[in-house]
Amino acid sequence: MMTFTQTERTTLKRLPKRGHFDRETVYGILDEAFICHVGFAPEGRPVVIPTGYARVDDKLYIHGSQASRMLRTLAGGVDVCVTVTIVDGLVLARSAFHHSMTYRSVVIFGRATPVEDREEKLAALLALSEHIIRGRWAEVREPAEQELRATTVLSLPLVEASAKIRTGPPLDDEEDYALPVWAGVIPLKLEAGEPIKDPRLPQGIQVPEYARNYKR
Ligand SMILES: Cc1cc2nc3c(=O)[nH]c(=O)nc-3n(C[C@H](O)[C@H](O)[C@H](O)COP(=O)(O)OP(=O)(O)OC[C@H]3O[C@@H](n4cnc5c(N)ncnc54)[C@H](O)[C@@H]3O)c2cc1C
């Protein structure tokens, strides 16, 4: 299936023209970002927790300590809403009211399940690592059995999802275009700085290429 079926929950009511349901667009956003916000309501009390993730095919993986309240709650099969946001710019309009942002975002609904199969768990952890910093997994020590056991990996099927994208200049009221106020877009992007070495790093270990030239 190339397109997400719109549901009552994923139908955009505000500015539906900005909605996208094709997997290429949704997955493009998921593959560029690496932090999501996971919303759930244990005992009816909503909480939203930021966490890393990776997508593999039609699944989103999140992971963490077995002791995590978030992971323990989600593993129980509760409804979850996951959001991912990329901010591409600030949109400066001529009126305070019409200021906006250029953005690409995704909202996913569903229920996650624990990944019990050892091979899938390892593959998910590798995907998480590679999604955030490609090339790192091959150089580091693999998880020991006890570390694997202490780590929970959850898989969320990508079945009910929408993307919303805003691009372009400000949209001002017609009469405001004559105002002597600068208007336009300030592009924003995530940029890596110079790597800072661990004070305990032994002499002679060079900064790997993937850290020296980290890009998304
Ligand atoms: C950029 C980023 C990436 C992360 N990646 C991961 C990951 O891949 N795996 C992972 O397990 N965790 C990750 N975390 C940490 C995650 O946000 C949670 O703190 C952690 O998963 C514990 O969740 P919990 O539900 O057990 O928290 P609990 O400690 O049970 O939460 C109790 C209360 O603590 C506060 N709290 C918890 N987390 C945060 C937070 N991040 N910021 C502010 N207040 C908080 C809230 O008030 C919350 O209601 C990441 C956090 C950030 C910001």
Structure summary:
The chain is α+β, with helices and mostly antiparallel strands and 216 residues long.
Question: How would you describe this structure to a colleague?
Answer:
- With 216 residues, this protein is of the alpha+beta class.
- The chain has 5 helices and 11 strands; from the N terminus they run βαββββαβββααβββα.
- The chain has helices spanning 23-32, 69-75, 118-132, 145-149, 209-212; strands at residues 19-20, 35-40, 47-52, 54-56, 59-65, 79-92, 100-111, 113-114, 151-157, 160-166, 184-187.
- The strands form 2 sheets. Strands 1, 2, 3, 6, 7, 10 and 11 form a 7-stranded antiparallel beta sheet that branches. A 4-stranded antiparallel beta sheet has the order 4-5-9-8, sandwiched between helices.
- The longest helix has 15 residues, at 118-132.
- It starts with 18 loop residues before the first strand and ends with a helix.
- The structure holds flavin-adenine dinucleotide (FAD).
